[in-house]
Amino acid sequence: MSPRAAWRLESLGFTSVFDYAPGKLDWVSAGLPVEGTAAGIPNLGAVARRDVQTCRLNDQLSDVKARLASDPTAPCPVVNDHRIVLGLVRSDAIKANGAKTAEEVMISGPVTFRPNVALEEVDRYLTDHKIGYAVVTTPEGELIGLASADQVHRLDAESLANRASN
Fold it and tell me: Which of 41, 49, 138, 166 could disulfide-pair with 142, CB 3.0 to 4.6 Å?
């Protein structure tokens, strides 16, 4: 909200008014709640799994593999102490390189998406680039979660079918 709008709300008697300096796009990109017409468009934030396993630069891949046993096809985001995404270890690298560290096999600076990106756009990107997962982060690069290409595609198709029937 702009400072002018915040002052106007205060003049109307509102007491808990804040000026969010980074702006609306930053608010939406951080996955915070929104209202209005854009709120009805399915976005990546609604799909991203937030309970994903992560790894650190020095983690042995044998340890990472054990951590990912419940979902062996999932990649492992490599994060620092602030959960900033530094890289991504793909599942095929984990299987093939057991004695190495995450840093040795990770993809540095992987493509990331903000939670406000429409599923249709993410679906198209993942399909065109043959990527199995979308890494979802805040604008600062902090990990929010992962979304599988299959789930993105399925929910995008459902959304398109619902819009066509209305």
Answer: 138
- Give me the mean pLDDT over the 51-58 stretch: 94
At 98, is the pLDDT very low, low, confident or very high (cuts 50, 70, 90)? Answer: low
What the chain holds in terms of domains, given with CATH numbers, is: 1-30 (no CATH), 31-165 (3.10.580.10)
Average pLDDT, rounded, for the chain: 86
Q: Kindly report the pTM of this predicted structure.
A: 0.78
For 98: left if phi > 0, alpha if psi spans -120 to 50, otherwise beta; the answer is alpha
Strands 143-148 and 107-108, bridge-based pairing: unpaired
3-state secondary structure the chain: CCHHHHHHHHHCCCCCCCCCCCCHHHHHHCCCCCCCHHHHCCEHHHCCECCCCCECCCCEHHHHHHHCCCCCCCCEEEECCCCEEEEEECHHHHHHCCCCEHHHHCEECCCEECCCCEHHHHHHHHHHCCCCEEEEECCCCEEEEEEEHHHHHHHHHHHHHHHHHC
Report the C-alpha gap between 122 and 145 in whole angstroms.
14
